[in-house]
Amino acid sequence: MAFDDLAVGFTLGVEGLEVGDGCDALMFARAVKTETELRLLERSKRLNGAAIQRTVGPGTRATYARLPYTQAHRDDAACRSSRRW
């Protein structure tokens, strides 16, 4: 069975389970979006933007590009840290 975090596979301790590195395949699958997913992401972006504006105040520009550590960085770091070279 393939995992994006090999430690999870090994932690399961299932007898006879062959643990494999599925990080690249899973990251690719996560990157492909349907039209419905794209619409939901756009809605989520608008809702999140409104929440940020309510939190930090009107006229304040806040973008994820300025944040030093986003979910994408965490996902990428998790893949790299689970690999055994």
Describe the structure.
The longest helix is centred in the middle third of the chain and has 22 residues, at 35-56. This protein has 4 helices and 2 strands, in the order βαβααα. The chain has helices at 6-12, 23-31, 35-56, 71-82; strands at residues 2-3, 20-21. The protein is mainly alpha-helical. A two-stranded parallel ribbon has the order 1-2.
Order of helices and strands: EHEHHH
Q: What structural class should be given to the helix and strand makeup?
A: mainly alpha
Query: What low-confidence regions span 5 or more consecutive residues with pLDDT below 50?
Result: none
The main sheet orders its strands as: 1-2
Helical element count?
4
Strand content: under 5%
Shape: elongated
Radius of gyration: 18 Å
How many individual β-strands? 2
Mean pLDDT: 78
Number of domains: 1
